[in-house]
Sequence to fold (132 residues):
Amino acid sequence: MKTTLSLLTTIVLLTLFALGCGGYGSGSSSGSMAAGAPSVANPLVPNMATAGRAPFTLTVNGSGFVNGSVIYWNSTAHTTQFMTNGQLITSISATDVATAGSVPVFVKNPGGTGIYNNQPGPSSNTVTFTVQ
Fold:
């Protein structure tokens, strides 16, 4: 009985080794890791607006942006256009600047995919847009 158990344990261990522990070992890569953390530079362009202003394009400069990075305006994701790894743009509506106050703006890079989908996308530092 002891020999059978020992032989069975050896077979299981060799099988796990050969299969790469369920497909996560070397040689198996189905997915991509999350992008690194972006960084937003001050000032935003523009960096302030008058309440009730017409819609405008906001330019966010910084570093570490990737295709799929998203600009968050007051914690709400905005459709974002990737320009370069140092520049993103988005449209800000009149509703977004309807009332005076400070608006937090940050960028979030995409998370991992496939076997890396448990990696959340990292967020940048937060900068403030002023609505007067």
User: Anything to note?
Assistant: The chain has two domains: 1-30, 39-131. Residues 1-30 form one domain. Residues 30 and 123 are 24 Å apart (CA to CA). The helical segments are 2-23.
